Amino acid sequence: METLLKISNLHIYYGSIQALKGISLDVAKGEIVSVLGANGAGKSTLLRAISGLVPVRTGEMLFLDTSLKKREAYRIVIDGISHVPEGRHVFATLSVEENLNLGAFNRRGNQKLVSERKDRAYDLFPILKRRKSQLAGTLSGGEQQMLAIGRGLMSDPQLLLLDEPSLGLAPLLVKQIFKIIKEINEQGVAILLVEQNARKALAIAHRGYVLETGNITISGLSSELKDNKKVQEAYLGGAALKKHKNQVS
């Protein structure tokens, strides 16, 4: 498969604090790649670096062989990378439709394409079509997450960065969101998925990386990560299951 994103020896600092310590990873066309890790591991920093929102100290990030290191954030969107941040960050005082239109800023000269992208978002999230005139700030948390993903798709990305899409959602909504993420991927969009719900993430991802205090400690196929004892104990409830079995016995 053709490589979309290739990150090599990436170092990121916040002042004197090193957030990422020489990490390397890649995402190929058609893939879902998950990044697992605890709070503070550097997962969001990774996505923000790819999006041009934090500066790179050393290392390289290539998207289709073009360096992203000194690329402006809006140019990175135009290049084909869209970032759906943790916490949704919808424009609360604008309508659902206005939020979607803003996501298509790089396509505003092609109204036919904007209309097609909007129809695609409404097909994926029918509730948004029914709410298109409603202020985004009045939507439920789940609906706001759907809107944030829909807005991210409006720029017609080749690579979608998703940061904790299930955070704070009820289990039924989590199941729905992950089903839609898989559907987006099946439509040809590669996805780099940061997610604390490791079980759900590995269920839909092709490959994964484990990030711990700024270092990648484990990587491999999702099936390999699911079978890895360290991943099971740290992220898949293995330690809790083992404790429960010991208590029962």
Distance between the termini: 48 Å
CATH superfamily of the domain at 1-80 and 159-165 and 190-249: P-loop containing nucleotide triphosphate hydrolases
Supply the number of helical segments: 11
Q: What's the CATH first level of the domain at 1-80 and 159-165 and 190-249?
A: Alpha Beta
Global Rg: 18 Å
Give the DSSP E fraction (strand runs of 2 or more residues). Answer: 25-35%
Q: CATH topology of the domain at 1-80 and 159-165 and 190-249, anyone?
A: Rossmann fold
What attributes characterize this protein structure?
single chain, 249 residues, alpha/beta, Rossmann fold, six-stranded mixed sheet, globular, disordered C terminus
